[in-house]
Fold these 2 entries.
Entry 1:
Amino acid sequence: MAGCNEKIYAEVILPLFSEGYTYLVPPGLAAGVVPGSCVVVPLGKSKVYTGVVRSVGTEAPPAGRMREIISVQDQVPVVSPTRLKLWEWVADYYMCTVGEVMRVALPSALKPSGWSGEEVAGKEYRTPTETHLALGPAASDESTLNEAFEKLSKRARTQYESLLRLVQLLGEDHPFGRSVPRRLADIPYGVLHQLQLKGLVAQHEVKVGPVAVESEFAGLPHLSPAQETALQGIREHFRQRDVVLLHGVTGSGKTEIYIRLIAEQLAAGRDVLYLLPEIAMTAQLVGRIRKFFGDRVVPYHSSYTRTRKTAAYIRAASSPGGTLIVGVRSSVFLPGANVGLIIVDEEHDPSYKNHESAPRYNARDTAVVLAAMAGAKTLLGSATPALETYVNARTGKYGYVALTERYGGAVLPRVVISDTITASKRGERKSHFNKQLLDSISKALDDGRQVMLFQNRRGFSPYVECGQCGWTASCPNCNVTLTYHKSGRNLRCHYCGHSAALPDRCPACNQPSVEPRGFGTEKIETELEPFFPQARIERLDRDTATSATRFERIISDFERGRTDILVGTQMITKGFDFEGVSVVGVLNADNLLAYPDFRASERAFQLLTQVAGRAGRRETEGLVVIQTSQPKHPVIVQAAAGDYAAMARGQLDERREFFYPPFCRIVSIRLRHRDAQVVRQAAAALAERLRLIFGKRVCGPQPPPVDRIRGEFIESVLLKVERESPFSKAKKLLAAETRELHRQEGFRQVSVTCDVDPI
Ligand code: ADP
Ligand code: ZN
Ligand code: ZN
């Protein structure tokens, strides 16, 4: 106990960029102010925020006037020490503030802010409650109840009937001391009021509690011998290691193995977190696992409403164990200390990395850290593991379990490489399709099967150009060409959202010669139609999947065979399980390879393998046609052969030689400013200072491929740090240098962001 005169202070995390907010704890609130509790505090002249207590102590901070905590939000579950520790780790590792972590880790409904205490109080989270009815004091036993019925039967027929109905619901043999939800009793308000006045019925609020769940899991899948061996292997490794990589080819039935491991954990009263890279995949998966785990499944993702997200958060955070959280990236912040297992499916997927705003965390790596903090295990699953993960697994840091055959006798698809140049020379190429691909599509459709066509969008968006003078439409705010959208006949910037009408005449030469160029999924769809007039063709990309619902509809139409051909971008490559697909076509593999990025080849391999993996997932063998002008390119050949090991060997050799991850760690530093001159000078100054410390480990500055976004010019500097040297120290030095840069007159307004382990 603190002495009477001793003051108590609390450091509070606020969802802001700066940190170090300390408040005085009023004696009346002391009991509720503990690390992790939600508190309402004043800030500045008139603002009020909800924050999370980071620490509590009696040592007076050096600051002068100290303000008081206004109130404690005791309806919100306390952020557990494990999760607070995780927030601290993310902030430290990814170079941001704990407040920025809090912003994504806590649903917005739980951290209201406003201009006054009342305003915030109005928005505070309240545990949902339900009104229950019970018998009142004037009907508390058999005799008084009978007396009441006696009286009512003569004078108040509706009251009599309502009371009777309530007693029936409460259980006629012994209705006393029990309650039922009012909505079940369905008693008109006026009647209820009368009964209450007479003391015959009492009403009270009951918190909507955890749902009752069954503890037996019926009908768990029987595993094939190969799956059983893999499961044993995983269990074996978990005895000595905290992380295991399940490297299982597409269609090998990794999900069924996860289901078995999940069942064990839930039965033992522990929580499980199951991460997926894509919202649409959560829908497909939740449908598949609800039949085993019912109400224990708590799905969570960003397109949920505030209320739904908050409810899921509360359930996960206050779970006594036995809850299965299924979600995308940000769900990594949900589990409490009871978590026993974290599954990261498709662990190689770049969507796990948040690169747009702080915290720029990778949910896969964060999951591994969380599991270690909570004493849990992590299972990473993929058919095409990230090279970082693969190296960790091959060097014994992680356990490694391979599953090399498809489930149920399905075989991996046959892959053919179709040379676009040869096809053109022979006159066997029409529009974007080689004859070989068209023939395969015809055959599949004749057999009543389905087809998926993949077109990489990046770098190949349709744009418009003047046929006379070569003018192209570009964004006034960003250094990119505008993308042409045929459906709306308009031009749009994919970086800032700027949109413009398609000009009738060229703004430069005034000729009516502005024409679409390049080819995106929309163009493919249009040009495919004349070849297959009977086929039902759908397209899945950012333009058609404008909402989660539309995405799910396109997917489910295809799943149910209402669509014959699905044309799409990366979106169709994710781990979907469609049984009717026999042919998968890759329209142009060249543009996957032509990336100015050290990960280009790895990504190309992953994409091609994942796309190919959608074909022939049941009895009949699938066929994959990869169109390319570089049929001999090692990555194309490796992907066609399904030879991950060869890809890994080749790529790791290159990475070692040019000193890239996994042989070093990278921090990518971006500087932005409205003035091109200022940002260039600032970047040069920062790079120079960094060189004094890190020498040739500093690359740049150089402008990124898109060097102007929303009117700001961008420069980037890369810092490479040896695996062996202390990364946190390097980052501290880097942070100090960026602060130093901001102290320089002219550079104050340059914004600097650091992306640790960029993808
Ligand atoms: P992966 O995720 O490894 O690509 P999936 O888990 O989607 O593969 O499995 C591929 C298909 O095989 C799915 O339709 C799945 O339901 C089926 N399957 C896999 N294992 C089993 C099993 N043990 N029992 C029944 N069906 C299975
Ligand atoms: Zn022109
Ligand atoms: Zn723009």
Note: The chain is about 35% helix and 20% strand.
Entry 2:
Amino acid sequence: MSKLDDIVSLCKRRGFVFPGSEVYGGFAGTWDFGPLGVILKKKIMDEWWSFFVEKRDDMYGVDAAILMNPRIWVASGHTATFADPLVECKECKSRFRADKIADGINESVSSEEFWDLHVKCPVCGKENWGPIRKFNMMFSTHVGAVLPEDTGDLAEKSIAYLRPETAQGIFVNYKNVVDTFYPSLPFGLAQQGKAFRNEISPRDFILRDRECSQMEIEYFVKPDEWETNFEMLRGLQHEFLETVMGLGARKIHEYEVPAEDRAHYSKRTIDFMFDYPNGSEELMGLAYRTDFDLDNIQRESGKSMEYRDKNTGETFVPHVIEPSIGVERLFLAVLSNVYTEDEINGEKRVVLKLPENLAPYRFCVSPLLKNKPELVEKAQEVYKILREKYGNVTWDDSGNIGKRYRKQDEIGTPKCVVIDFDTLSDNTVTVRDRDTTEQVRVLISEL
Ligand code: GAP
């Protein structure tokens, strides 16, 4: 089993992540978060929000609707260009994203270039390919009272899309925030929320999903100040990933995306790659979107997106720097970073060395013996004190103490607190450390 398989198995076994709609055989590209996954995901999102929004004076939050006016996607260029190269095997009819089954090509590969590579079909092993076709990844739906048999104008006009990026929900609110908060440039608008992409080949557990969550900032700047702000945001991403998420700096690599591979809106993009168990993959992107989006909105809506400088009276359309990160990719990076197998007294152990700010539970409290009411009562007392103080504390009185430790190691609980007979007389407890497995006696009042 690869390390990724081990992580997938741990996630299922301990209730972090389950395959979407599993009881019906699953639904490709979708995943459900279980009780511990929800806590970890929320902590990741809350840390991001605290770091990039709450602790800064230049950031504001928004939470836009997922269903938006379809004109947005025309203006943003997604209707015309948000497409991946689809290729079909004429033998077995399997469909693939061309640039994912051949080396050395990118999303703009032509049919001829692909055919020249003599790629074998990953399913049937033959080489008989159709042409490359552009496949738009937006999910469409109908909004309003439209029946399946409706055609023509009624059906046409009711088409809407599930947003493929949260960013456009920010851009369409830029003017609202400027007119209500009068922020000085530079300032950022941040949003966390779902995004949907009909990926041709969802893969690698939660790395490439059809439904994911993004955390994005559109940072509005004066056009001639984009480079300094790009550098500022670049540094902030490293600080967040390395100090708040605890990701090793050695596992993060910057990739300067060449012009031909950049998204249609970007004049400069740095992808932050992370060393996942199956290789280096994009964790997040930092893009200079210029005035592409505000300019398009201005043209499509007929409303001015100009900003008026309070000091000089100058008016212009701001330029934008965008850091964008997927919650699931960050979740997997955090898990890959801390998943460890070691040996304690000759026995293999799996441990998640999660930093304290991300561990689903900070403490686990147990009575040494479950069938001694005086121990259980005292342990309940300690449990309530810690829960009151820290919130994220769990109770475990199942199995023997060794099994409890192993379970808490697997879910990343930094400290296990055990109440025994000595506690009843001296108010001390045993505190066992997850990473070193060392045990110390501590007064309850000092926890
Ligand atoms: N607004 C810019 C934007 O959406 P992107 O590079 O397409 O740019 C940004 O996506 C980030 O969103 C990626 O770096 C990744 O973390 C996450 N992401 C994109 N597609 C994803 C998918 N199918 N599954 C999981 N995460 C995804």
Note: The chain has 15 helices and 23 strands.
